[in-house]
């Protein structure tokens, strides 16, 4: 083993110990194994990634060293709704009923209705899980609806809770 390989292996070992995410650890480990003499196929099997991914890690390391292995951002699919569309969706859900935006005889928001609204208004289709993720990101929570009467008489409610209900409960 060449001296500079030994130094690099020590640096990688330290980087693996200090890695803050599984993905970063995996990248360092791939290069560590590569410098130890493992083939790309063996490394891919050990780490659970494709040979192409291992090749990309090795290439990035060859070009820029440890810096080439750092993730600058979390990979993932781009959002299908713009921030403005997400804000508009939140306002619709907060201030309108489904019947107000064209869902006949629907008075409660459901994930299915929200997913359909998104598809009708902006185009992208979402699963119920994806719709739930959007609501979570917008700070909205999905709960079963409860009913409150808009014209409820507070005095009658108080009388029921303090007088009528205890009587009914006693006789039951």
UniProtKB/TrEMBL annotation:
Stretches assigned to the Winged helix-turn helix domain: 107-163
Pfam families: HTH_33 (PF13592), Terminase_5 (PF06056)
Terminase ATPase subunit N-terminal domain sequence ranges: 25-82
InterPro entries, per the entry: ATPase_terminase-su_N (IPR010332), Homeodomain-like_sf (IPR009057), Transpos_IS630-like (IPR047655), Winged_HTH_dom (IPR025959)
NCBIfam families, per database record: transpos_IS630 (NF033545)
Record-given protein name: Mobile element protein
